[in-house]
Amino acid sequence: MSSRGSWSSKIGFILAGAGSAVGLGAIWRFPYMTGENGGAVFVLIYLACCFLIGYPVMLAELSLGRHSGKNPVGMFRQLASGGNLLWKAVGGLCVTSGLVIFAWYSVIAGWVVGYLFKTLEGTFNTTLSPAVIDDIFANFVRNPLLVMLLHALIIGATAFVLTGGVKGGIEMLSKWLMPLLFFLLVILAIRSVTLDGAMEGIRFYLYPDLSKITGIVVLKAMGQALFSLSLGMGTMITYGSYLSKKENIPSSAMWVTIFAVGVSLLAGFVILPAVAALGGSFTEGPDLIFKVIPSIFSLMPGGYFFGVGFFLLLIIAALTSTVSIMEVPVAYFVDERKWPRKRAVLLVTLIAWLIGTPAALSQGASSFLTDLPGISSSFFDVISTLFGDISLSIGAFFIALFIAWKWDLSLAVEEMRHEGKFEIEKAWRFCIKFVSPVIILVIFLFTLWSNFLS
């Protein structure tokens, strides 16, 4: 364990885990997913998925990681009685998912960097109409050299942190900058909900319309729960492998879950009331945050400084996530291939850049990648669905299946009893054996049917 590194303390792990979860998944993805999927009813299902599916699976991942002291592939090889081919494939899927999600995620993080510079230039100092802001974003993402440069910048920054190991950089960034990000979100949320016309957005966000519940809405809520908690791609298995035996897994995992959910809900209060106040559409999609947030800054005292601070801290939040996601494939090459860390980081960086480049060009810079022949969808949207929803569901399902039916649940419980009681043992056993895998499987099958078979 010592040669691989470990967290310095319980709070260090909680902040690192929260930093992994409290990134663009919470602040960028959650609001637009809520807007596209019925508002409050999506939020309710998301909360249920976080605590009935996400939290039990997080406990499973952390216990598997700490018990084995390995990355996902190494964990399955060590604990699956000689490394059954199926479980090796699941470990490989976790590593692949982490790699592709990192490549795709870094594209949006690059947009954030671009908007920081736009804010510094004073682009959003004056009140702009929604149409003008739409044009600014459209022209921005259609600039091929710019989006490729920003994408490479994020990947390079992430690689720089990982060459020296995760512990120092992640813990330090999370400890000092996550509270600042939370504080700034609170200020923005207060301003957003007090805008004229914000009540329609608050109503959309807080009052569920049960008629909007569909299989797709449930699927998207579950996918968002897994994505925002960094589950199904081996991140928490890898982070768990660095966790000291002195730390209590259930309480640490609960704090990570609470932080992730809390910031997601707060981000919704920042974005959706402002959308209503500015006369925008809740269904703008992935670019929602880039069209709404700049409008808020122009309406508040000291908006320029809030804008600079917000995008700067959002970049830090994004980096704490990219580092945690990239650590999964890096740990694989370090642990299983015995590569030096710098060599592993270099290879993962190159592959991520190659995968992420077409995603960066698929928002208008390349007509072919923006509207793929035969499917009328962008490359960006395709990998978002395949790896942001489907592969995470598969990974989470098999992790739950493995710990409940293949491995020994008593060993997992023993991991969770270190330095404290496991008071929800019976409930967790039931959830991880029946509730979590069954719900994940049903929604996964519905996803296949609705996207590929129907």
Number of strands: 0
Would you identify the regions where 5 or more consecutive residues have pLDDT less than 50?
none
Distance, first to last CA: 48 Å
CATH superfamily, by name, is Amino acid/polyamine transporter I
Radius of gyration: 21 Å
Please write the CATH class name: Mainly Alpha
Largest sheet, in brief, is: none
By secondary-structure content and strand pairing, the structural class works out as mainly alpha
Helix content: over 70%
**Average pLDDT figure:** 86
What name does CATH use for the topology?
A: Amino acid/polyamine transporter I
CATH architecture name = Up-down Bundle
Strand portion: under 5%
Number of helix segments?
Answer: 19
Q: What is the 3D form?
A: globular
Helix-strand topology string:
HHHHHHHHHHHHHHHHHHH
Q: What is the domain total for the residues?
A: 1
Write up what this structure looks like.
With 454 residues, the protein is mainly alpha-helical. It has one domain (10-453): Amino acid/polyamine transporter I. 76% of the residues lie in helices and 0% in strands. It contains 19 helices and no strands. Helix 3 runs antiparallel to helix 12 (249-277), helix 5 (85-120) crosses helix 7 (144-163) and helix 9 (199-206) runs antiparallel to helix 12. The chain starts with 9 loop residues before the first helix and ends with a helix. The model has no long low-confidence stretch (mean pLDDT 86).
